[in-house]
């Protein structure tokens, strides 16, 4: 049975609540981010056309959180990472739904993995000094390309071309004088967040439940999206998945 966007969001929310409960029951701090946080702030739930859900966990709790999710998730769901997926190349884990199947027409690389179920990202937030941020992002990108290359997902020529370009962008001087701590996320967004903007975490209404998020969501969302309260043009209001099917 093919699901409409509301049906997809309903399944994602159930999965997200399971993840939240496991983390909170074990005193693992987490926070929602990106479109999930934007949806909570702007819509008190999902962005109307969004079929995604994003959690972040700081690196000092990440391994513990992943092990808990691996062993405590209900049978319907499973943790997808390098231990469960031979071709895994992401630098973070996913939680996936075994009872759904999605089509990745818009993002074909996401369809490489064996399980095609609905997915929730469990991102890792890294605490670094401001001066380290630029090189850290580049190094993370190189590691990402290396994982893809070793899995045979990109050609040797393309790999060396991209890695050499990235290495040329590394900064030699990284002064730590008067450096601030900052949480950095290896992504394309301008999405750093400072500890006093993140903690203490706040509760955000999300439909008829809640999730934890940054203390100062406004500054984070402005960094990522600019005027985040303004809706994007209609032509950009697209879901991630082309179709989502609930298995019989």
- End-to-end Cα distance, whole Å, is 7 Å
User: How are helices and strands ordered from N to C?
Assistant: HEHEHEEEEHHEHEEHE
Largest sheet report: 6 strands, mixed
Which blocks of ≥5 consecutive residues have pLDDT under 50?
none
Provide the residue-averaged pLDDT.
Answer: 93
Calculate Rg over CA atoms: 18 Å
The number of distinct β-strands equals 10
What is the helix fraction of residues, given as a range? 25-40%
Question: How much of the residues is beta strand, in percent?
Answer: 15-25%
The tally of helices reads 7
Summarize the structure.
The protein has 248 residues and is of the alpha+beta class. The chain contains 7 helices and 10 strands.
SSE layout and pairings?
Blueprint lengths: L4 H21 L5 E2 L1 H10 L10 E5 H14 L4 E4 L12 E5 L2 E4 L15 E11 L3 H18 L5 H13 L12 E4 L10 H4 L3 E5 L2 E5 L3 H9 L17 E4 L2
Parallel strand pairs: 2-6
Antiparallel strand pairs: 1-2, 3-4, 4-6, 5-10, 6-7, 8-9
Helix pairs in contact: 4-5
């Amino acid at each position: 049975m093919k699901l409409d966007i509301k049906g997809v969001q309903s399944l994602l929310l159930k999965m997200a609540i399971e993840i939240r409960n496991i983390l909170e029951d074990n005193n693992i701090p987490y926070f929602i981010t990106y479109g999930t946080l934007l949806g909570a702030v702007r819509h008190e739930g999902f962005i109307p056309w969004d079929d995604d859900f994003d959690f972040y966990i700081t690196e000092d709790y990440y391994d513990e959180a992943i092990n808990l999710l691996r062993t405590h998730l209900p049978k319907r769901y499973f943790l997808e990472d390098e231990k469960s997926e031979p071709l895994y190349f992401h630098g973070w884990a996913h939680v996936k739904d075994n009872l759904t199947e999605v089509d990745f027409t818009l993002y074909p690389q996401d369809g490489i993995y064996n399980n095609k179920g609905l997915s929730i990202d469990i991102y890792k937030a890294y605490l670094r000094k401001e001066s380290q941020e630029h090189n850290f992002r580049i190094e993370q990108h190189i590691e990402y390309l290396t994982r893809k290359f070793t899995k045979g997902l990109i050609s040797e020529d393309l790999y060396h071309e991209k890695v050499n370009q990235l290495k040329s962008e590394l900064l030699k001087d990284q002064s730590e004088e008067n450096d601030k701590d900052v949480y950095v996320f290896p992504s394309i967004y301008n999405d750093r967040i400072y500890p006093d903007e993140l903690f203490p975490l706040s509760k955000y209404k999300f439909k008829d439940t809640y999730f934890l998020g940054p203390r100062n969501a406004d500054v984070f969302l402005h960094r990522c999206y600019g005027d985040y309260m303004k809706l994007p043009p209609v032509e950009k209001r697209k879901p991630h998945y082309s179709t989502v099917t609930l298995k019989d």
